[in-house]
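Why does this matter for the project? Reviewers at the last site visit asked to see concrete outputs rather than summary tables. In response, this paragraph embeds two records directly. Each consists of the residue sequence and, immediately after it, the corresponding structure tokens. Nothing has been edited or filtered.
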Amino acid sequence: MTTGGSLGSWLLFVPNFVLAALMYTLLGRAVLGIVVGTDSTNYIWRFFCRITDPVVAVVALVTPRAAAPVIVWLFGVVWLFWLRVALLYAYLAFAPTQAG
């Protein structure tokens, strides 16, 4: 039995935490976008935009330009979710097994 976390588990937990934070912030941006306008000067809206704009830019590269911005944001949530699933799968596939 081990008492502390190993370096290998941190290779999963830290990126997973960052991806989860981005995913839920992007979901918050989509919900908040319904309430406030996209050109709002609200400081909370600007924070959500500043944090999620890099993800939105990457998702916009593979999303048709005719899609509404909220659709791009929701696709970003889906892409980040599947990225987290792939990260977990890669961790489980390549993590060394512990003899117990």
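We now turn to the second protein, recorded in exactly the same manner.
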Amino acid sequence: MKIILRKDVDNLGDAGEVVNVKPGFGRNYLIPREFAYPATKGFLKVYEQEKKLHENKSARDLHKAQQLAGKLGNLSLEATVQVGEDDKVFGAVTAQDIAGLIAAKGYEIDKRDILLDEPIKALGIYNVPIKIATDVKAEIKVWVIKG
């Protein structure tokens, strides 16, 4: 049985390939789970339309992510912390704190997308990378000041 793969399938092929599989595997596993279409002219057209829609959506999402990265690149945040003797910081500035500061500026960024190796535990200026999309990253400045 010939099928058109809709998604990458391990040990079988990549999306868009026409492959030959046993009829039971295609009919009972691949087609019901929407991994493949039967290899007919009609389904080939359907797959091409899905592919174009997916590419257009990906291009729009990438464009939006690049715009957001440009806006966030100009962003400078101030995190006020309590300090003790010798300007030793009580606590730390975490990714969640930075996400809250970004949200106060009107942008929604998940704290897991803030690529902070470890919490900030000293006064100063820090460049904090943020993952916007798979291939798009932005860097914001965080000023840790005493308050």
